[in-house]
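Sample 3 of the quickstart, ligand adenosine-5'-triphosphate:
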Amino acid sequence: MGAFIELDRVEKVFDVRKRTGFLKREVRRVRAVDSISFTVARGEMVGYIGPNGAGKSTTIKMLTGILTPSGGRLRVAGIDPSRERMRLAHRIGVVFGQRTTLWWDLPLIDSYRLMHRMYRIPDARYRENLDRLVELLGLGALLDVPVRQLSLGQRMRGDIAAALLHDPEVLYLDEPTIGLDVVSKARVREFLRELNAERGTTVLLTTHDLQDIEQLCSRVMVIDHGRLVYDGALAGLHEAGGGERTLVVDLARELPPIEAGPTARVVKVDGPRQWLAFPASESAAPLVARIAAEYPLVDLSVREPDIEAVIAKMLSSMGDASVPAPGRETVVPGAQSS
Ligand SMILES: Nc1ncnc2c1ncn2[C@@H]1O[C@H](COP(=O)(O)OP(=O)(O)OP(=O)(O)O)[C@@H](O)[C@H]1O
Ligand SMILES: [Mg+2]
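Result:
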């Protein structure tokens, strides 16, 4: 007990037919998810990250019951998603940033009315949830607008509200901030933080934006080539990846490279601007203080490494042992057709 989401050596294999020549075809077997095990406790907010094609969306689709695992055991709230997809649907909410669950040609409010009926949400609860979500996500002026006329950020907020009308215990978010501007991203993050804190909603979040994870998730799981390669705190991920952040400083004038102590080094100089790399696990404060004391500092900013860079570094520092050779795409013997 205790685990709300439970995966035990879950696999998903796709057979993809590929044309390899005139009248020649080959079946390639893609191991999109390769023996993944993890558990998520009720109320946790977990980041699920990894490079393109790593298997994140495939995992989420299995957790909703859209896809059936090829192997292993999977439970959400004690339910086997692919066998009891409808029963599970009442307890989970899903947002796929890349596509909408809303009715394209209908005003936003009509989609919500349809969901009210589809999920058989009691009237009072529906009204209460709708009012709350409209307020928190700033949807008031948008309810009568057809979904196709909404901007990406407006539509995403509309989708998040749709996923929560029926009070799901867990929310899967597959890139909910993709393509959003800084203000909309901040708004979505703020909302998710409140949802998790006030309602105890369990959240599984997939994103390519490291700031989503930094601001929301105390735990992060990294998947690469269908395998779970890291599960722990974000700080630990930086350490495992030997990640570095960059301090960008503007000096009053052009000067030789700053001497900033043992852990920081200048990686670029352009006129009065200098870039210093320092370990991501360290605070920037002492470094800034040292520079400010000895140099004519005008302005500064800290740049985070992007997720792909951190993961790439982590994978290379682990060596190739973790990556199954010759890769998970294999030609299925005897499956050639002509
Ligand atoms: N329906 C499908 N049929 C065949 N192959 C698929 C199918 N869905 C996914 N794949 C393959 O499975 C692998 C994992 O895909 P998935 O969409 O889960 O990646 P992802 O981690 O979500 O990547 P991204 O960051 O690009 O969204 C990829 O190699 C992809 O081509
Ligand atoms: Mg994806």
